[in-house]
Amino acid sequence: MVNQQASGKVPRSWFGLRLPVLDHARVDVSAGIVVFLVALPLCLGVALASGAPLLSGVIAGVVGGVIVALLSGSELSVSGPAAGLAMIALNAIQELKAFEAFTLSVLLSGAMQIAIGLLRAGVVGDFIPNMVIKGMLSGIGIVIILKQIPHAMGDDNDFIGDESFQQADHLNTFNEVSKSVSSINWGAILISGVSLIILFGWNHPVIKRRAWTRLVPASLICVVLGTVLNEFFKVMVPSWTLLAANHHLVELPVMGSIREGLQALHFPDFSRIADPLVWKVALTIAIVGSLESLLSLEASDKLDPVKRISDLHAELRAQGVGNLISGFLGGLPVTSMIVRSSANIYAGAKTRLSSIIHGLLLLVAAFLIPTVLNRVPLACLAAILLSIGYKLCSWSVIRSVWKEGWSQFLPFAITVAGIVFTDLLKGILIGLVVSVFFVMRSYTRTAVTLVQDGENFLIRLNKDLTFVNKQELKARLREIPDGSRLVIDGVRAYYVDHDAVEVIREFCESAPHRGIETQCRRVHGITHT
Question: 445-521 has which fold?
């Protein structure tokens, strides 16, 4: 691996754990707080959408933040429960008829992911085109903005981490925005508006000159001020108050003690180990979770300011261990998440310490200060996500891709549209299909060239030929007129597969009937000269 640390240091290893380097502790702690504020409602929202206990989302967040981070192949990737797996989890829990059977599937999926990592299947991530990754980042940015606008206006009927175009309430992303405009909560508007001013104004030179602004993240100021404003509304403008009864606030489960929390854990039901449905769900989680993690890791590397190259195989093993532990403790499936990872990167994180800090804060929040956090309005958390979404889909990225030409812009744009109008994985698959089309189109156009000099023709094979190039090869051969002389030069092609060889051989055999003289030079698989 290259560039493993911004400081040039390689993470220390202790019994397989990659311990964080503390050279950047100040910025990593600050970034960890930001990621915690983003992750808290996402953990609860994904659990709610999955039909699982709220505590299961927090458990997955803690495990993803701490355990996975200590084993991860990336310094900046942050893991936790993913919205992309919420519908899979919901359907699986309903089919298995017991959450304990589902957590067994999560545990087994972890074992499968470890095996996938050991087989070095992480190489799949290297075959994802750059334009698809850029389209993924911009698409997620647009989805975040569209999904958080309702929350910023006080419409909190859907969970804050929802990413799918079609929603559980039978509305879609655009319907929800128009619906929320007609039922604005002015308290939410004021809180989110003030939060956005703080977030975007924090980098102003006048504010940046203050030393204390480098120690306190803007997101924390937003949360504190938003909570204070909502308490002020209770006294001065009751109609503007954001209430827990209307799901306007964070809703952490309140536990009287750590012992009570431990008793609330849903351990796996190992008596269902022979159930084929349990294994089917486990395989689904392993495949989808692995793909989402690889995509997130590739995207995180794109955003990393020092362009470190993550170890994809180590990441799959880390996700596997995370799911083993999360499933055993009664948690949801864990994946690397681009929303948390991008929040981490934009907050200035340098090492995996920020992810560990965020996981520890989730643990503290769940067991020690749930009543305090349950006063935090979702509107200020929506503002934090809006600022992240804005950074992900910046115009500078779109303009740079446009300048690359249609062959690059179309896969990018179609990936963006696919993610906005379906979901993350479907959008990526659509983008990949389009990218493959353009790659094949480019490959076939440059593989064979035809040159003419009077009655003399030269067909040059510019690269290795496969069945993909057969149509282009036939088209060039059809251009050779009767009574001409043709040389087929294969010096540059180290390999010509059977289909292409057959096309050349058949042409050479029929050429004398048309008065064509043929000569093959160094064409792999052809002895005719």
Answer: Transcription Regulator spoIIAA (3.30.750)
